Amino acid sequence: xxxxxxxxxxxxxxxxxxxxxxxxxxxxxxxxxxxxxxxxxxxxxxxxxxxxxxxxxxxxxxxxxxxxxxxxxxxxxxxxxxxxxxxxxxxxxxxxxxxxxxxxxxxxxxxxxxxxxxxxxxxxxxxxxxxxxxxxxxxxxxxxxxxxxxxxxxxxxxxxxxxxxxxxxxxxxxxxxxxxxxxxxxxxxxxxxxxxxxxxxxxxxxxxxxxxxxxxxxxxxxxxxxxxxxxxxxxxxxxxxxxxxxxxxxxxxxxxxxxxxxxxxxxxxxxxxxxxxxxxxxxxxxxxxxxxxxxxxxxxxxxxxxxxxxxxxxxxxxxxxxxxxxxxxxxxxxxxxxxxxxxxxxxxxxxxxxxxxxxxxxxxxxxxxxxxxxxxxxxxxxxxxxxxxxxxxxxxxxxxxxxxxxxxxxxxxxxxxxxxxxxxxxxxxxxxxxxxxxxxxxxxxxxxxxxxxxxxxxxxxxxxxxxxxxxxxxxxxxxxxxxxxxxxxxxxxxxxxxxxxxx
Length: 503
What we know:
Blueprint: H1 12-21, H2 28-58, H3 66-70, H4 83-88, H5 95-109, H6 128-139, H7 152-167, H8 179-189, E1 194-198, H9 205-216, E2 224-228, H10 233-246, E3 250-251, E4 270-275, H11 306-315, E5 317-328, H12 339-348, E6 352-357, E7 370-376, E8 384-389, E9 395-396, E10 402-403, H13 411-424, E11 434-438, H14 439-444, H15 452-455, H16 467-498
Parallel strand pairs: 1-2, 1-4, 2-3, 4-5, 6-8
Antiparallel strand pairs: 5-7, 6-7, 8-11, 9-10
């Protein structure tokens, strides 16, 4: 099997086929819920069945002991909720009821899932023949085989979201954050312990990667407290399911809510904030929040919420808190609506720790170029900001998608180690890649924070080959290529003439 990556998990096409089977019967928003619910049900069923079979093989008779599953962070699936029951009912009129009952049974056995799972498969407008076909497709998908190395639910959600948005003829206003971006945030911030917050948490990928980071460094996941929220009800439930699968306890609020108007954690002061807010969100309600306490550095414009997100995040930082925020590149240089003035105040308050310009084509669902802003209320390098131009990093994994390489010598650690050296005061500027800049120099650039302005252009390797020798070599190579071209041309003419065609 070919190596899997976040662009091709192996079952995307099947998932979309499942959604597509419902297209003629339901609105996109409705069949989205159907498919995402089945993704979760099939995933936990696969995990349960794998553990169940292992217990059967052990021969101790513990295969129906709920504790044997919870101890392994696997949801216990009651008998009438197992996929074999659902698969057997696929082509009966009762398939919708069977799935709804399965969801209720799983919620009953697993309190964390109460009121999270969709239970609307029995509704009359849902074509049961098509639903049965979808169940058949899912029966042949073994999700657990892809392991825990990937945010399986989040990635499936990202793919479906983009396709659903396409089907609806409009752009999706929210995006799943690619794993390599999240890993960059996590490896720079190093959230080993404390309160971790994401005010627009999507499917919960930031928290998942934070947990993985802690575990990979022999830490204890119980040393972090997770807080988040999301305005989209489907996405909010998706996050609850995703975190539940991972065994991550989280406070995502009692319900989905708009972060600006319904802050679920008004008194929270987080040690770490990791966020990928909706890019360039317009008409977000600035006029109704003109005097909000969060706008310490200036009222954000109604036409773009980028600096509203930044100030909301800074407002929720603890006295020594750090944040990493993914924003569209326009936020680095925009002057409209007072954004330039807000950016100036943020720099003068010495909150901007590091700016990383990211490569293009990292997002599956948008080509908008992005940067990562790192804020720090307790900077080690006072009065200085690190600029990193990472636009040339990354590897194309498909024709349309780029990923930052992982591992000790990969792109992600190069960025993280550069930041660490900066924090320790040992970093030397690298032309074309990184530069440490003081506030005065940023002021000279009118507080524009585009890394390219500060890191310069990398020095090109000198060509030691003398010009005359190079030209002699290149013209010789060109003459050889011309000769080969003439030979091929003559052969083509000969072959055409042999079948009655003459040029």
